[in-house]
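step: validate -> pass
step: tokenize input -> pass
step: predict -> running
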Amino acid sequence: MNRDPDAPMWRRWLATARSIDPDLIPDKAWDLSFREELHAIDAVVAGQGIAILSDVVVGRELENGSLVKAHPLSLPGYSFYVVWMRHSPRSAVIESFLAWIRSVM
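step: predict -> pass
step: emit ->
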């Protein structure tokens, strides 16, 4: 089990939702869980429930309508870092990639 207090988990989502509206969510917790996000995605696409998923990971499914957001509340996610060797022969390509990432985020 992930013991990271910043992990986007149901317990954290429910606490955040209840802090906004105490009557919004019932007290019952869901029983099914997956260790791998891809398994949860497959289950949700197959109509087996709802999941907390990364908008980045399911962007295509959100765009094509095979998944929809069940609620507008989002939890802050993890940060991403790009690392490379200081004198990489591909530094120019890496810098171009970083400039593109910064332009779309």
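step: describe -> The CA atoms of residues 42 and 99 lie 33 Å apart.
step: cleanup -> pass
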